[in-house]
Design a protein that fits this description.
CATH architecture: Up-down Bundle
Order of helices and strands: HHHHHH
Largest sheet: none
Number of helices: 6
Mean pLDDT: 94
CATH topology: Ferritin
Radius of gyration: 16 Å
Distance between the termini: 46 Å
Number of strands: 0
CATH class: Mainly Alpha
Strand content: under 5%
Helix content: over 70%
Length: 152
């Protein structure tokens, strides 16, 4: 369990770092500061804290899911798609300022994480709650992205 957890922590935080690398200036950028955002958009520091917590929970979840899965190829495929979407949103939204593209990516990621949550909850039972913060945050982020698309 410990080795799986370390592997997933490294992969997930590596993905966050890679996404941040291609983000440009991100939240403190002039572009982001000057667009219309939802009135209840969290301050910038909340995003970092939330993603840290989410990736710890997701890593623990994946460390539990891996040994219970009969179809490892499916788990690998779903996980890789999740990584690609998660990494891809940052440059799409922040670097290229492609708000519609960002919305499509984050909507796909939200659907994917919802699918994983529902599909594997019978197997992992209460441990599935580890994926809830990721799914809830994605619902919020999808709304925030959609708000920016509609108001700018």
């Amino acid at each position: 369990m410990v080795i799986r957890l370390i592997i997933f922590l490294a992969l997930n935080f590596g993905a966050l770092a890679l996404g941040a690398l291609f983000t440009s200036k991100g939240v403190p950028s002039e572009w982001y500061l000057n667009i219309n955002k939802a009135p209840w958009t969290p301050p910038g520091w909340v995003f970092g804290a939330a993603w840290t917590f989410i990736m710890i929970c997701f890593s623990v979840y994946m460390a539990y899911l891996w040994p219970t899965s009969e179809n490892k190829n499916l788990i690998i495929g779903l996980y890789l798609v999740q990584l690609i979407l998660n990494i891809g949103w940052n440059p799409t939204f922040f670097y290229f300022h492609n708000v519609l593209g960002g919305l499509l990516i984050i909507s796909g990621l939200t659907i994917l994480i919802g699918y994983i949550l529902l599909s594997y909850s019978p197997t992992l039972k209460i441990k599935s709650l580890l994926l809830a913060p990721y799914f809830i945050w994605l619902l919020i982020a999808t709304y925030l992205n959609a708000y920016i698309l509609l108001k700018n």
